[in-house]
Structure formats: C-alpha cells, structure tokens
Design a protein that fits this description.
- Two copies of one chain form a homodimer.
- Chain A is of the alpha/beta class.
- In chain A, about 45% of the residues lie in helices and about 15% in strands.
- Chain A has a domain of about 190 residues: D-Maltodextrin-Binding Protein, domain 2 (3-Layer(aba) Sandwich).
- Chain A contains 14 helices and twelve strands.
- In chain A, strands 8-7-9-6-10-12 form a six-stranded mixed sheet. In chain A, strands 3-2-4-11-5 form a five-stranded mixed sheet, sandwiched between helices.
- Chains A and B meet through helix 1, helix 2, strand 1, strand 2 and helix 3 of A and helix 1, helix 2, strand 1, strand 2 and helix 3 of B.
C-alpha cells in the first residue's frame, strides 16, 4: 500500500481517536534464517506448521525476516535437527522434542509423557506453570531457546496387524513408537523403534515392524498406514497432547532486534492454536472416512482396560526411574507431575465433566 | 539495541547461513488505537487479555502500533462496545460476543452455545471449519472484523443460594447468566438477567438475584461470589468454551499496512492460547482453595442428571428456534451444528477417551 493511500484510508481511524505521529525513518537489516524440520513434506499438518510460521513472520515484518523451511532429511536428518541448531548449522528447527530423550530424558517433558498432560494442560504448564522457564534452563547447555509451536492433540493408540486382547499379545511385537512411550512397552516385551514419519509405511508393509503409531487418522492415512494394518486402537495413552516445538539457536535469537524476537514468539504461540485445531478438524473428517470408506478394512477399537491399567502402572514407574538419570530431569519431572496433579481435579469438573455430558 | 551491536551479535547468524541484506530506509507512520473492553479491571484474566495484546503488538512493532485499553464503563459501557466499534468511536473492543445476541442471535455462535462446542472445537470451527469466514460475512453489516482472542475453557455451572435437586427448584429463580443460556432456563421458569461482571456480587448479596454464573473458580472468587452463595455447580453446560473476541472497526483495520494487520492477527491467536491456559492454571489453584480454605462455606456439586437432560433437550429446541429469526443466524447455526456433529465422534475416541482414562 502506498503511503498516501494508507494515510487517506487511516482517516477513519484519525476521526475515531487515532493519532498519526510524524513518520520516523527506520533502518533495519533483513534477516534470513534456515529451519530444519523433523517432518516429511507430505504432512501438511505437522510439517506445515513451520511453513505457516515462516509465511506469517515474513508478512508481519514486511519481508524483513525470512525463514526458509527444509523438510526432514533435506539439509539435516530428521533426528539430528537439535544438533544442527546447537551447532548453529541452522538457526532453528521444528521437531517433537521427545525424539531426543536418549540424549537426556528431560527433552520428553516439553513434548509428551505416557499418561501425562493433554494439549491444554501441557500448554498451561509451559506458559503459566513454570514449564517453559525450566525447559529453557535445561536447553541452555544445547545453545537453544524453545517455544511450543503446534500440538497434535490426543493421538490414537496406533495400528496393529494383530488384535491386542491381553498384555501377552504385546510380547515380541516390533513397534514404531515415538518418545518415552517405548519404555513401558519394552517392559511388556515390545521392541520399540524410533523411525521417522516418512519411513513408517515401508517398514510396516515389509514386516520389519508389526505395529506403528504416528499421530491420528489424518496423518496416518497420508502415511498410508490404514492400508497395511487392520486394528486401529484408542485412546492415545502414550501421547495425550504431543507438543511440537520451534527451537532457536540462542545466540541467533538473542542477536535479533527485540521486535523480531517478539514477532517470533507470537507466531509460535499462534501456530499452537492453528496447529491443534487444524489437526482437530482434519482428524474428524479422516475418522469419518475410516468408518465409512474403509469400513471393511479397518477396525477402530479401544485397548482393553486391563492392558491400559498395566501400562499406566508401569509407565509411572519407568518415567520416574528415567528421570533419576540427571538432576535436571528429576527437577522437571517433579514440576510436571505436581502440575498434572494440580490441574487434574479441575479438569474433572470442567473439561472432563463436559466431555462426559455431551459424549457419555 | 544499537545497529552496530545488532550486527555484531548477528555474526553467529551470518556464520550459520544468515544473509544480511543492505539496510532499507523505511518510513511508516505510528498508529494509536483505543480498545474498549466489556470487562472490569479487577479480572486480570479476561480483562488482562486486552492488555496482553496491547503490550505484545507494541513490542512486535517497535512501538509503532499502540493500543490503549479501557475497562468496561471507562469510555464505553460494557454492553455497548460493539456499537462503539461499529460507529468508529473506538477502533476495537474486547468482549464476549454473546452479550449481543439480542441484536441478532448470530453473535452467540462466535462465543458460546449451551451444550455446544468446547474451546478446541470452537477454535477448530472458527479457523478450519469456515466459522470465521461466516462470522465475518455477518459482521460486515456492523463494520466489524473479528478474531477469537482468549477463551475461558469449560466454565462452572454457577452459584446458587439454594440447592437444585429437580427442575422445580429452578422455578422463579432470578439468575445472572450470559448469552443464550438464559433462553432454555427461562423455559424452566428462571428469570435470566444479563449483568456486567463487576455488578454481579452486589446484586447477589442484596438478593436482587438468587443465582449467578460468571466463569470459573478464579474469576468468581475475584468477584467474591463464594462469599454470598453456598452451592457451586458443575459442569458448565451453558458455556463449554466461551470464546472472547477482538473486534476491529473494518475500515480502521483495512487502513492498516499489511504488516500491522498480520501482527494483530497473530497477537489475537497467541492470546487465544495464553488466555485459555492462564485460566486453566489459575482455576486449578482456585478450585483447590475452595476445597480447603472455604470447605465449610462452599459445596462443589454436580447438577443432577435429570436437570441436565431436560436442559439439553430444551436448549437444542430453543437455539434452533432462535436461529430461525434471521437468514444469517440460520446459515451459521447449520454450519455450527454440522461441525459439532463432525468432531463429536473424533473427540469420543481422542480427548474425551483420554479424559476418561486418566480421570474416570
């Protein structure tokens, strides 16, 4: 928009109390960043979040700040993006931080914990329960500052080629599963595997693995999982609200002028709501398709109560043990579980009670 | 930050692939807006959302765009803020749009519908289910463009001075209740009243009303409601995820340079996640206080199943009737109910099933 045209159009604003101060000549360098995603381009939801932030940051800064987005493997392998940010190979990444729990279990608390917090609770902990501050204290040693950016919401429990009737049916299963959820499954005899999204279908199709979880109906169908396994389980006990994250190289972030930093922060928060609700709408449509179009091929069933009870008991113990590995993991585990215990009773009378009222 | 210092600090970015283009001299006028809130200053949650957006927009634009926030009644009465934006008395307002359902029932669909969608579902409809486009089509005649900005999450069912055992106990009750939820209650003999937040306590204390709902434990305690009524009911059947809104005068918004418009959009979306989770954390703490500190004074109890069943049946009928009043309300009611029916089965296996697993 030309300046003259803007001032003319702004007249209504002036009449209504706007004060147009004299124009200030400003000079600011442009900034170009590269973002390494852990996700494949085929997933418009989870990969798309990085593109959304890139477009929105460019638009909000008049093109002064551009972020070029690369899919998993394009410039950095999917599970090496944290190293790439740490080493300043790229300025930022978009990932699910639990991929890195092998480096340090602390990573998982910013993302998803089996039988842990859902999207709303997790964001409440991050923004208003001290979670973000603690995670940033931890991530300093990786030269990283992180922002929650996108959330899958509650996931599905995964695709299985054979039915799971008791915990015995889990024994010996090779299963693709993200994050710390493989730990309790391993106690029940599962062989957990962390495989990037784009590689799950061939592994399942070839029989290299027997079961796999990714996210929910929309993404899973994009990955073609419904064409290679019959039993689709719920609920997503292992990932109740997986929080993806933008992680920025701390020096690159701190070197930005403050207006660009704030623009990034808001865009990350905005992506949290766009992303969660994008998944919500798309998963609803995809579930409907599974129930109709793929009715003969796919069974959508609940995991048996006793299996879930065993998993819950084991998961609590295993996550506690895992958190004893480092002082930071212990500290963050304590904060996380305390916050979950605090918000649980509130959700029982609020969101949970409402879910039961309309769906029960 | 001085330019020299920025360039120095940006060196790490450069090494990591940043390209600093030559500085471009820019001139852009500063913009000063006024925002009229419907809410009292005492509520840091709901009133605070407008202050958050104001601060964040200023920070993201280097102070070029300032929004001065006025509490309900300071320059515009709480329930006149839409008129004030329509008439360009102020450039924007922050409100709960269902306050205006008397003008046109369509307003309510952007906010809260009894037995309607929760925060996640409502945002999914707004952002990804056509809801925002439809609401903006409707709001054109009010010279308004709207953005969801903050959400209370599932509310509590309200404070009552006497116990509600059957629908007969509702007869003749004068109750403060927001939005269209008064309509089904009226069918059961309640006299619904729309009273601004700041005026609820004196009305309940003086006995002008017998019952009142506002939001949830945190706000309600700030309003002192726990010191004037004993029975605190759940669930919030009437407001499952009340969406507050920033509404901008369309001409003032369109006259903004595109970068400032995008900055506003993101800040509104960011406030949606900050606001919802702020409520979540604070309500959890406040509920705990009610259960301990105020144990002798306050009973937190579920509305009886038969009362909820009657209300649900009546609410469905009444909202449908109400929506027949204007073509736009009919159109938006159809879109809203269709989306709610679509996402319901997904929530049954995802968020709802997970709530049941961990709280059930």
């Amino acid at each position: 928009m030309k300046r003259r045209s803007f001032l003319k159009k702004a007249a209504v604003g002036l009449a209504a109390g706007t004060v147009a101060a004299p124009a200030i000549a400003q000079s600011q360098p442009t900034v170009s960043w590269r973002l390494a995603s852990s996700f494949p381009k085929s997933l418009d939801t989870i990969f798309g979040a990085a593109e959304v932030i890139s477009k929105r940051v460019a638009a909000a800064t008049n093109g002064k700040f551009t972020i070029k987005v690369f899919a998993g493997g394009e410039i950095v392998p999917p599970f090496s993006v944290v190293d790439a940010v740490q080493n300043a190979t790229v300025e930022c990444c978009h990932t699910a931080p639990y991929y890195f729990f092998g480096k340090d279990p602390t990573f998982a608390f910013a993302c998803a914990i089996p039988f842990g917090m859902n999207a709303r609770q997790q964001n409440a902990w991050m923004y208003h329960g001290g979670g973000a501050d603690l995670m940033r204290e931890f991530l300093k040693e990786y030269n990283i500052i992180n922002f929650p950016a996108g959330n899958t919401g509650a996931q599905m429990g995964g695709w299985f080629r054979k039915e799971i009737k008791t915990v015995n049916d889990l024994k010996g299963l090779k299963m693709r599963i993200g994050g710390t959820a493989g730990l309790p499954l391993a106690k029940l005899g599962v062989v957990p595997q962390q495989i990037p999204g784009g590689d799950i279908y061939p592994a399942l199709e070839k029989g290299t693995i027997d079961a796999a979880e990714w996210v929910g109906p929309y993404d899973d169908m994009k990955l073609n999982l419904h064409n290679t396994a019959r039993y689709y389980y719920y609920p997503g006990w292992h990932e109740p609200g997986t929080t993806n994250e933008f992680s920025f190289n701390k020096k690159a972030y701190d070197a930005l002028p403050v207006d660009l930093r704030r623009t990034l922060d808001h865009a990350a928060a905005a992506v949290s709501v766009y992303g969660l609700t994008d998944y919500h709408a798309k998963n609803a449509i995809a579930l409907e398709r599974l129930k109709t179009e793929f009715k003969a091929k796919v069974e959508i069933i609940a995991l048996p109560g006793p299996v879930l009870r065993d998993l819950k008991k084991i998961a609590g113990d295993v996550i506690r043990e895992e958190s004893e590995k480092t002082p930071m993991a212990r500290k963050i585990h304590a904060s996380y579980t305390k916050f979950q215990a605090l918000v649980g009773p509130w959700d029982r009378v609020a969101e949970g009670a409402y879910h039961q009222l309309v769906e029960g």
